[in-house]
Structures are given as structure tokens and as C-alpha cells.
Amino acid sequence: MVSAVTGSLPRTRPANRRELILAAATGLFVDRGYSAVSMAMIADEVGVRPSALYRHFVNKQAVLTEAFAAYVDQLCAALDGGHEADRLACLSARVLEHRYAGRLWIREARHLPASTADRIREDLLGRLDAVVAGAATESTRREVRARSTAVLAVFLSVATHHAEVAEPEVLTTLAWRAATMPERLPAHTPAPPGLSRTGTREQILSAAVALFAEHTYDGVGIDDIAAAVDLAPSSIYNHFSGKAEILAVLLHRANGYLQVTLDDVMRRAVDTGSALSAVAQTYAAFAVGHPALMRAIVAETGSLDEPDATLLRSAQRHYVAEWVRLYGGEPPSDRTAQARVTVMAAITAINELAQLPALARTAAGAAYVAGCGHTILGLPAPER
Fold this sequence. Notes:
Blueprint: H1 17-32, H2 39-46, H3 50-53, H4 60-78, H5 84-97, H6 103-108, H7 114-135, H8 141-156, H9 168-179, H10 200-215, H11 222-228, H12 233-236, H13 243-268, H14 272-289, H15 291-300, H16 308-327, H17 336-353, H18 363-377
């Protein structure tokens, strides 16, 4: 029918507009990060006015919630039915179909209400628990969940790099290593409180990194940091130019520690195998000892101003390249891509396990996490 007013055919909304919005939003969240994406940007990507989005979603967080839930639903579907090994193989194939969407889990789910994110995560981890429990006998419920966390980290690790994964079986093998690792989860023993540094600058940094981990960098203001250390907000500016400098100091400090300890390991090493083992143990000890700072490294580097973001990303790439070389992937070897896939699986598993409260800041937790990294890398268990 031709419109009597305009003389043109009436505009119709596509039946799948909601799906188009979710697909566009997912791509933007993955590429740019949730905080850098606006509803207007999503509308531009779909080719509609921003008002059209609000017919389907009340706000940007609602879009992220449904995008995250849809991604997790796809992974859950891959785990329904079949033998344990078959289910992991199906999950591997599904993850690679939507490779970079794994960043929604690693980096963006923290922007959701905790109860919502936990409920969605539990759908997937509960299914992985069933797979792991069937593969590793005589495991406690806590141990099964820790292994499920490591298995999922192996799969999600492909979202953190661009190395070619030649076959899904590669990921399946690495995940199976995590599911059946010989390490036993240590008993939950809270870390002793220890002592705190007394300088105001250090207290600000300590409070800020804890707040960033709990509420995200964008969700924390100078007023929040000041309140945590019992200062007037204006007093923060006696030590830092603003929140951006606080984050930059934290991440540069963490990078410096990792780079210096890598130098120490290389200087003492007698061969590449012992060096890789020592690097993995040092990294695991750092991640477990500083879970909030590790979360900031993983999730907040993109929040840095330039040139800090570029400098940190370059340093991180060179750090990982040393792991790859030690693993045996030094160019021009054709094992370079395989080495990077394996190394990033181990690093991502360490990062995720370090966030488990039962392991945080304990020597036994660090040993367990290091052992998981060794298993994924195919190294002998580290000496105790």
C-alpha cells in the first residue's frame, strides 16, 4: 500500500530488530568495551534512531545483560548431552565460532549487577561441574568448581589473542588437562592480615584498586576513594592529579614487578624448561597475592589514557612473547601459534583461579594455581 501523505511505501520494522540490536551491541562491547559504547553508537550500527533501541531495552546495561546471557546460553547448549570428552569438544567448536565474544565474560560482565552476573555464570559453570566431576573422580565440590573455572578459562583464552587455533581439538586437549590436573585444592585457610603501609599515597592506591575490582573503574569516583581512606576528596589531589593517574600508577607498578621478576628468572635459569616453570610460578604467586590488581590488569588497561594504554599493552605483549619463546615457539618455528594458544590458556587459567576467594593471598593457593598452569603447559609439577 502506498502512503497517501508521502506517496511512498510505509516503513516497516524488521521482525528480528531485537536480534540485530544485540548482535551490533555485542560486537561493540567486544571491540571497544562496555564503558566506551553508548546507546547512540549501537543505534548507528543498526541504522536506527536511538529511540528505537528503547522500545526493546530500558538502558545499556539491559542490552549487556541480554547479550551476555545469549552468549552463555550458546555455550550451555554445547554442553548438553554426550560423554564428557564429547561435550568439551562441542564447547571448543562453539567457542571458536564466536571467538572474541569471550571478552564479555572476562571483561564486561563486571558491569552487570553481581547477582545477575553470578546467576548467568552459574548456568554454565554448573554444567561444567558435571563434566569435570565425571572426568576427575574423588574430587570435592570445591575442587570440581576450581577445575571448572580453569577449564572455562582455557576456552575463553582465545578471546585474549589473535593466534590461529588450527583445530578445535587443540583447545579440547588443553581443557582436558585442566579438568584432570593432579593438583589437589588446598583447604581454605584465610590469609593472615599482615601489616599495611602507612603512607597516605599508598593507602589511596590500596583503597582504589580494591574499589576498582569491586565496582569497576568507571563505577568509582574520587569521593569513593577518599571516603575509603577517611580523607576529604580534595586531599586526594595532594597526591594524584585524578583517578586516571591512580590507575596508571597501579598498572605500571604491576607491569614493572612482572618485568623485573622475569629478568630475575631468566638470569638464574639453566634451560628454557626450568625458566618457563619459574616464570609460571612467579606469575601465579603475583596473581594470587594481588587478586584485585590482577583484575585491574585484565579488565582496566583499556580505561587508561594515552600513551599509558599503548605502553602497557606493548609491555604485556612482550612479556607473553617471552613465555611463548620459552615454551618453544620462537619464530620462525611453525609451533609459534600453537605455543601462544597454550601459553595464553595457562595465563588465563591462572588469572581466573586467582580470583577465587578460597585461594587468594595464600602460599598454598599460589602453589595450586601454579600447578594448574604447569599442567596446561605440559610441564612437570613444580617442586614444593
